[in-house]
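Lecture 7 notes: from sequence to structure.

We start with a single chain of 153 residues. Read the sequence below before looking at the structure.
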Amino acid sequence: MNSIRILIILLSGIGIFASCNSDNGKLPADVVHNPVTASGEANMHDLPSLEFKETLHDFGTVIEGEKVTYSFKFKNTGGRDLLISNVSASCGCTATKYTKEAVTPGGEGVITVTFDTHRRRGFQNKSITVSANTQPNKVVLRIKAKVISPNDL
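Now the structure, written as tokens:
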């Protein structure tokens, strides 16, 4: 009985320790800048700004089983370094790669999205959420496609 209690306490301690050391994809505090003062005044031009050339890409008609890729290009039009903390897709059928280094003011980066059409048919509309040290801190990108069966050709 005592060994079970010791085991439970040990496992609880490991769980707490592991959760405290996890960054969960969050940005370190020294790269987040809040331009709003206690008086309510804001200096927004000092913030990084994530500007995309486009936020929607249409792959058109694709054949089921294909993997199609598109790169969303962006520019930091703000006054501080831009850091992307996370890029998440609405579906497991969509994979992402993105610029992980700081993007200096005026600099450019890319978010590459690959959509796997395996076992997907019909009109598809997927979203990709980009989290960064910007205001607002999230931008949603979208991809869409019409997936047809190879037998329909």
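Helices lie at 2-20. Keep this in mind for problem set 3.
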